[in-house]
Design a protein that fits this description.
Blueprint (H helix, E strand, L loop, with lengths): L3 H19 L6 H14 L7 H27 L18 H10 L2 H12 L4 H8 L3 H21 L16
Helix pairs in contact: 1-2, 1-3, 1-5, 2-3, 3-6, 5-6, 5-7, 6-7
């Protein structure tokens, strides 16, 4: 069994990234992450790659919860509410803009970027998480970053970066 000290350390190291990762599929990402840590605590032996195991467990639970939520909303005929992927208003990056750009990416590409950047997983761990080769994970990562950069450059400055200067006539 995994001890409480190790669980606490793992939660401190990976909790925030796991919540962000789960937000792709679930409206209750904190619950999904908590369930993954409970499952980890119940294991008889520590997995070889704990971070990758946690991301896979969170992914599977989040997808399952997301499907359940969609079915429930459909039955109850409620519209899904739009939820930001980022919670901090102090972030330098315009969170709404970043979330919109990430949402425009193909799901597998978005998943690679979130797991790699915010999750801190290696490309090997990302490949294991997605069930693809390291080369495929790397290709998706590079393509996704390229698309994000192109879209960021094409949209002009972020509203928080704009100044109050009057336009000049040239």
């Amino acid at each position: 069994m995994i001890g409480p000290e190790l669980l606490g350390r793992l939660f401190d190291e990976h909790g925030a990234a796991l919540v962000l990762y789960a937000r792709q599929w679930s409206e209750a990402p904190e619950d999904v992450v908590q369930e993954a840590f409970i499952a980890l605590a119940r294991l008889r032996a520590e997995p070889d790659h704990v971070a990758a195991w946690l991301f896979r467990a969170v992914r599977n639970r989040a997808i399952s919860c997301g499907r359940s939520a969609r079915r429930r909303r459909h039955r109850e005929a409620r519209a899904a509410r739009d939820e930001s992927w980022f919670s901090s208003l102090d972030d330098r990056l315009d969170a709404g803009r970043a979330a919109a750009l990430l949402a425009e990416l193909e799901p597998r590409t978005r998943e690679v970027i979130v797991a790699r950047i915010w999750g801190g997983l290696t490309l090997g761990e990302v490949a294991g998480l997605l069930g693809c080769s390291i080369t495929t994970a790397h290709r998706r990562y590079r393509a996704g970053l390229s698309l994000l950069l192109d879209r960021l450059e094409g949209q002009g400055p972020c509203p928080t970066e704009m100044t109050d200067q009057a336009p000049t006539n040239r």
